[in-house]
């Protein structure tokens, strides 16, 4: 059975470092962030990002995020694999639970979803 988790996330810390940049061309960067989750996910997430800022258009990124806390009242942790873009309207992210990453009461967790700016969804199931 699949369940939908909804809520908001608030990025509480962001540290970015430039990896490579060519004048008038794209810039590559790495970043680490922390986020507080509320709603059906209650807890914190720590994320490692790789970003590309093209000369024009939205920034693109991939990342992994370890969530620790509760999902619909079940305690544990899991890893999300993220991919998205960032433009003038905000962040647009899709994610999936990394297979086998669930711990505690979240062992066997699988799911997909994402977020637009601060509002997230996660369609999930537990084996």
Name its key features:
127 residues, mainly beta, AOC barrel-like, 9 strands
- Assign the structural class, choosing from mainly alpha, mainly beta, alpha/beta, alpha+beta, or little secondary structure: mainly beta
Query: For the CA atoms, what is the radius of gyration?
Result: 15 Å
Order of helices and strands: EEEEEEEEE
How confident overall, as mean pLDDT? 96
Can you give me a brief rundown of this structure?
The protein is mainly beta and 127 residues long.
Task: Give structural notes.
With 127 residues, the chain is mostly beta strands. The chain has one domain (7-122): SO1590-like (AOC barrel-like, Beta Barrel). It has no helices and nine strands. The protein has an eight-stranded antiparallel β-barrel. A hairpin with a 2-residue loop joins strand 8 and strand 9.
Secondary-structure blueprint:
Elements: E1 3-21, E2 27-39, E3 41-53, E4 59-71, E5 74-87, E6 90-97, E7 103-104, E8 109-116, E9 119-126
Antiparallel strand pairs: 1-2, 1-9, 2-3, 3-4, 4-5, 5-6, 5-7, 6-8, 8-9
């Amino acid at each position: 059975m699949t369940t939908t988790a909804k809520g908001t996330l608030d990025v509480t810390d962001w540290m970015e470092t430039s990896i490579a940049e060519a004048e008038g061309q794209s810039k590559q960067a790495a970043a680490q962030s922390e986020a507080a989750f509320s709603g059906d996910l209650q807890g914190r997430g720590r994320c490692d990002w790789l970003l590309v800022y093209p000369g024009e258009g939205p920034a693109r990124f991939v990342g992994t995020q370890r969530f620790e806390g509760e999902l619909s009242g079940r305690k544990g942790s899991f890893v999300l694999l993220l991919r998205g873009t960032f433009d003038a309207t905000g962040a647009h992210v899709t994610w999936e639970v990394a297979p086998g990453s669930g711990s505690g009461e979240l062992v066997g967790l699988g799911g997909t979803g994402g977020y637009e700016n601060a509002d997230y969804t996660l369609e999930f199931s537990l084996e």
